[in-house]
Design a protein that fits this description.
- The structure is a single chain.
- This protein has two domains: about 50-195, no CATH class; about 200-330, no CATH class.
- Helices cover about 20% and strands about 25% of the residues.
- It has about 325 residues and is an alpha+beta fold.
- A seven-stranded antiparallel sheet has the order 8-7-1-2-3-4-9, with no helix packed on it. The protein has a seven-stranded mixed sheet with strand order 11-13-14-10-12-16-15.
Length: about 325
């Protein structure tokens, strides 16, 4: 009896095992995993790049060509690049301050390694991918065109890892790579350094004009010889080149090393606009060629007759023709 009972059970067990075995799938073949390649492979700067350059060569610079704003900045000697890094590590940058009237030009020194690291950062953000766009209209993603009038043009120039110079001019923010352009602008515009100190220019441009009001600011006493304030009619502007001890004296009385300030002398109020020159800048011959000044007065006495030359009124691009005349004066 027991023998007859075991045979069906054994057969059933073997059948179930065979059925289960038929449902088992063969093991899957493992496929190798391929890591995604980066869209932009970073290229490093050569460690000896700086050694191949002269100390005064520019490694990277941010500059601007302004729109139609205040008339002084229409001249190249009426504005200064807000960020310039030289091969010797000298870095001159604009510190914004909490308001426009607190702007001043700062200076610091970077080591070769720090300079290359800054170049590398700008490269990694996409400087080499940027292309020039100088038209005042740009095609949008939806196919329409956006046009902006009287905007500034940003100029970025600097070295790439291969040692070649790259320069782009971008009107408004019409960049072919908007994210790269914005990121680079943020790095340059927000730059500050713990060891930064006010830049001491060797030469500067000084715009002077008589005014009726100081716009609520307390004027300082005029620090230089009154010959600098050669008689001017209301609305006139003088443009001086100032350097040496006279520039140092002016800077000691001015609130900062650039921009607007107000002075008082002999009961009259004057507005001054100072523009420091970078170490490699020299605009004298450019101004002489543009405005064709007569021969300079070389009288020795600068007390009663400063060494100056006055030009005929020169029209300057401005939205206000009544205040857009300059008389150019030289100091040497």
């Amino acid at each position: 009896m027991k023998t007859h009972l075991k045979i069906p059970f054994l057969a059933l067990t073997l059948g179930l095992m065979a059925a289960c075995a038929g449902q088992v799938e063969p093991p899957a073949t493992l496929q190798p995993t391929i890591a995604a390649l980066p869209t932009h492979i970073p290229v490093r700067f050569a460690d000896d790049l700086i050694q191949t350059l002269a100390p005064g060569d520019i490694l990277f610079q941010q500059d601007h060509e302004p729109g139609l704003i205040r008339p002084e900045v229409q001249f190249p000697f009426g504005r200064v690049a807000p960020f310039t890094l030289y091969a010797d590590g000298t870095l001159i940058y604009l510190e914004e301050g909490s308001s426009f009237d607190e702007q001043q030009l700062m200076e610091t020194s970077l080591s070769p390694a720090q300079s290359l690291a800054l170049l590398q950062k700008l490269t990694d953000l996409g400087f080499g991918r940027l292309e020039s766009h100088t038209d005042d209209c740009a095609r949008q993603a939806d196919g329409s065109s956006l046009c902006v009038a009287d905007a500034a043009t940003t100029i970025l120039r600097g070295f790439l890892p291969g040692g070649q110079l790259h320069e782009v001019k971008i009107y408004h923010d019409f960049a072919n790579d908007p994210q790269a352009f914005q990121s680079i602008q943020e790095v340059l515009n927000d730059y500050t350094h713990p060891d930064g100190r006010p830049y001491q220019p060797a030469v500067a441009t000084l715009f002077l004009s008589p005014v009726d009001s100081t716009e609520g600011r307390t004027p300082a006493e005029w620090p230089l010889d009154e010959g600098w304030l050669t008689p001017m009619a209301s609305g006139d502007r003088l443009v001086w080149f100032i350097e040496g001890e006279e520039l140092r004296t002016f800077l000691s009385a001015a609130p900062r090393n650039m921009g607007d300030s107000y002075f008082e002398h002999a009961g009259r109020l004057y507005h001054a606009f100072l523009v420091p020159w970078l170490p490699d800048m020299d605009y004298k011959s450019e101004i002489q060629a543009e405005f064709q000044p007569p021969a300079l007065d070389t009288r020795e006495s600068t007390k009663t007759a400063p060494v100056t030359s006055r030009f005929a009124d020169c029209p300057v691009p401005s939205t206000d023709p009544d205040t857009a005349d300059f008389r150019i004066a030289f100091v040497r």
